[in-house]
Amino acid sequence: MTINSMKRKLQEGKCVYGSWVRIPSPIVVEALGSVGFDFLHIDLEHSSIDLPMLDYMVLAGYSQDIQLIVRTASQNPADLYRIMDIGVSSFILPRIETAEQCAKLLQGIRYSPAGARGLGGPVRGNRWGVISLDQHMEEAEKETTVIVQIESKEGLANLDSILEVNGIDVIYIGPLDLSQALGYPGQVEHPIVQETIHSMVKTIRDKGIAVGIHASDTEQAKYWAEHGIQYFTVGMDVTLLQSAGLSLMNSLK
């Protein structure tokens, strides 16, 4: 398992920046992984990326030394350690609504005694058995990053108890989903949505856990960095491609 430099930066109180990948291609990971992001979110929840393709994308991430964080599509703990065996060390867990649900998923991420992740023998996650089992288990505990996404009324209501679950590194806020949960779909700048985010940031930071958010642009990222958020996603492969294409076409016209 490679050293998680992104996690180190968070622990040092620094901001980290990444983007979303939904296009099922290792070339996208190579291209975006070369521009200086701290991490990339590989989105299994809202894309056609499957496990064989993820395998290739993980190898592309290794080639660029970029931290890949997988957003899962299922609520099955076994799916998590299957993904970890192919070399993924970090997850963003969507639709977390209760502490019990969160704790069950984290069981699939961590080895005994903290969890119930299965020992798979020689896998990419332990360099195909080259490193010792003890070293692999130590690295897995140290280098894994767990990001929990709160995006519903139930998640908001249970935020305090979710924060008590051991092993959470970041609580990630999706403003679009949050706006819908609060009854203002798409209105991320609505005062109630903004007040809710500020309240969440204070509650989460008071527990010593980092806060993440998706920022629509650099100005929004700067604003939230000034208000206690450290972990940012900005942009997405599809929108970055569209934006570049539109800019080119507008200049040609």
From TrEMBL:
One of its GO terms (molecular function) is aldehyde-lyase activity. InterPro entries: Aldolase/citrate-lyase_domain (IPR005000), HpcH-HpaI_aldolase (IPR050251), Pyrv/PenolPyrv_kinase-like_dom (IPR015813), Pyrv_kinase-like_dom_sf (IPR040442). Keywords: Lyase, Metal-binding. GO terms for cellular component: cytoplasm. Residues 18-242 form the HpcH/HpaI aldolase/citrate lyase domain. Pfam families: HpcH_HpaI (PF03328). Gene3D superfamilies: Phosphoenolpyruvate-binding domains. Belongs to the HpcH/HpaI aldolase family. This is HpcH/HpaI aldolase/citrate lyase domain-containing protein.
